[in-house]
Structures are given as C-alpha cells and as structure tokens.
Amino acid sequence: MPDLNVGGQAVIEGVMMRSKDKVATAVRIPSGEILVKTEDYRSLATRHKLLNVPILRGAVAFVEMLIIGIRTLNFSADIAVKEAEKLEAAQKGEEVPEKKQKQNALYLGLTAAFALALGIGVFFLIPLAITDLLNIQKEAVGFNLVAGAIRLTMFVAYVWAISFFGEFKRIFQYHGAEHKSIYAYEMGDELVPEKVACHTRFHPRCGTSFILIVALLAVLVYAISDTLYAVWAGHPPTLFARFGVHFALLPIVAGTSFELLKLSGKTRDNAITRILIAPGLWLQKITTKEPSRDQLEVGIAALEAALGITESKLESRRTPVS
Predict the structure, then answer these.
(1) What letter would DSSP give residue 50?
(2) Could you give the CA distance from residue 59 to residue 44 in angstroms, rounded to a whole number?
(3) 305 and 21 Cβ atoms separated by less than 8 Å
(4) pLDDT tier, 90 (very low <50, low <70, confident <90, very high otherwise)
(5) CA–CA separation, 95 vs 100, rounded Å?
(6) By C-alpha distance, which of 41, 8, 42 is closest to 26?
C-alpha cells in the first residue's frame, strides 16, 4: 500500500489536512455549509538543506505540526464561537461587535498556550515526581521505565476518560473521518462518502501512534542521558535537573519518533512492522470513532482542498474563507 505525503488532525466540528504544499481546514457550521480555509505550506526542512537530515527534519516537522495543529484548532474554535454568537445576535436582531471578536481570538490563543504548558507539566513533570516519591532506585533504566509506564498510563487513562464526553466523541469521529479519507486517497479510491466509509479508521501514521512511540523511545533516550549526567556530576540527577535535561532532549526524541512513524507508514505491509505498530492501532480504538456521512464529507472537503483538487461533488456545499 502506498504511503503518500498527507496527514491531518481532527478539530472542532471539522478536519485539518496537510499535503506537501498546502494546509486546509474544513469546518461544518450550523447552517450545514462547510467552511474551508486553505493556506500555502512548505516545510522548513524542504526549504533549507541543512535541516533536511534524519532526526533534525523530524524535530522540525514536530514543531511545525504543533504550531499548525494549535492554529487550526484555534480556527475551528473561533468559527464555533462566532457562529454561536451570530445565531444569538440574529435572534436578538443585533450584530456581534468587532471588539468582542478580537477578544475571543485573544482568549483562544491564551487558552491554547496555557493548555500546552499544562500538558508539558502533567505528562513530563508529574510522572517524574511520582516516581521520585515512590523512592524508586535512581538507577537510570529502572527509574525511566517506571516514569515511562506512569506517563503512558496517564495518557491512556486521559484519552479513555474524555472519550465519554459528547464533544470529544464528535472530535474522535472526525478523527476517524480524517483517517478514512486518507486511506481512500492512498488506495486510489474515489473521494466520495460511500467509498471512503468502506476504509478502516485505524492508520499507522497517526498522532496517537506517534505519542506512543515517543513514550517508549523516551525511556531509552532518557536512561542514557541520566547515566551520562550521573557520570559527569558524580550523582543521579535531582528531580528538576532530570526534568530540565529530559525537556531539552524532547526535540531529539520527537524527531527520531517522527522518522520511525514515517518508516512504519512506508513498511506497513511488512510482518514485523505490523507487529510493532499494533499497540498504536489498538490505542486508536479509543481516539477514533466511526464517522457519520456528514463528517466524512468534511474530511473529504479538507483533503481535496489540501491536494488542490478543484472539481468536487461537495463544491456546492463548501464556502471558502480567507
């Protein structure tokens, strides 16, 4: 099966798709229309040869994915807030003030920054703190195995818990629509809901699988870094020294994980690869749900826009936004 250079993520009532030269976000609004925002995109790694080397290009791609992901999530949230305010204002025969729209955008940006900082604190510092409190022997491998297990357990428990909330269930359905659309495109299938619906919602080149690879690889990398720290300093790292070193090495862990994720996509038909990627696919049983036809239409709209396809059976239902 071919592995094409297309990826994406679910957003609020929509899907973002990224190709090698475009990023497109499609969001369905209460009126039933699909708003599509398309931006030109070219990775720094393709623009600068010095960055286009293994691991480094993965770290660059990780940062770019993070920035694009936050920006598109903010866009979908902004659309949701604006549409709700427009509906409320229309019922009152009023218009939404421009000042309030700017305040909403600022609020969403600050919320995203706070969520990112909280995520780093929860999934990096807390597992280290718990392992430290458990008086686990500070031998590098053992300590990081326990911390890694706690980190992974926290992540799985988190996504499992939020899957029961209605809004997150819809996001997971859009996540399924994203995967099915990409699978249909990779297989050369027609991009229509009936065809796309037949494909699996589990994809090896997924952010969920990426996080799992990061968690497992981190155990090895951080065990090495802790050993080197102990040799250099003459004692095991303290909690905050460990956190600082681990956080500083995150780009290397993420970059290597990104390369492994791409490799798993290219070799997905290999028997050994299928065994190695199985845990990531199992985890997607939580983070993806079967999408409805309407959600598949949104996924297709985003994919077609990212690919630059102009002719579409959904064209009449789409309203581009700048």
Answers:
(1) G
(2) 11
(3) no
(4) low
(5) 11
(6) 8
DSSP 3-state assignment of 180? Answer: helix
Q: Which residue has the tokens 């996509």?
A: 265
Tokens of 15: 């899907």
Six-digit token string for 94: 């009023």
Query: How far apart are alpha carbons 51 and 44 in whole angstroms?
Result: 7
Pairwise CA distance, residues 142 & 190, whole Å: 50
The encoded tokens of residue 101 equal 């729209």
* Residue 1 forms part of a structural domain: no
Give pLDDT tens digits for 22-55.
999 999 988 888 999 999 988 888 888 888 888 8
Tokens representing 162?
């939020």
**Domain presence at residue 91:** yes
Distance CA(239)–CA(103), nearest Å, equals 39
And the tokens for 138? 């500070």
d(CA 144, CA 220) in angstroms, rounded, equals: 8
Of 156, 56, 74, nearest in space to 115 by CA: 74
User: How far out from the chain centre does Cα 134 lie?
Assistant: 32
Q: Is residue 261 part of a domain?
A: yes
Domain residues for 100? 7-320
Residue range 272-320, pLDDT digits in tens:
778 878 888 888 999 999 999 999 999 999 999 999 885 444 444 454 5
Let me know if residue 2 belongs to a domain.
Answer: no
15 vs 72: CA distance, rounded Å? 9
Q: Look up tokens 């286009």; give the residue.
A: 52
DSSP symbol at 125: I
Q: How far apart are CA 270 and CA 273, in angstroms?
A: 5
Strand ranges of the sheet holding 14-18, from the earlier edge strand across to the other edge: 7-11, 14-18, 22-28, 34-40, 318-320
Domain count for the chain:
1
